[in-house]
Predict the 3D structure of the following.
Amino acid sequence: MAFESICEKCEEVLQPYLDRELDEAERREAQAHLDECGYCAKRYHFEEDLRRFVRQACDEPMRPELKAKLAALRTPLL
């Protein structure tokens, strides 16, 4: 099995694309690259799934016991 190499274009545009920070021309260019680059497409889907997971995890209420444990770990600001 061959491993795909890291793509510099991915590092340049992936996060701004996911954050919707690109203008229309940049967005089209990034989408065209994702359509052609298997490495970037895999990274995009991974990052998209990770963001979805984090959003869902943030919606779940934290148990009071866990909140208390985390509060006990806080150190006062000097």
Remarks:
- The first helix runs from residue 8 to 18.
- Helices lie at 8-18, 24-36, 38-59, 64-73.
- The chain has a mean pLDDT of 84.
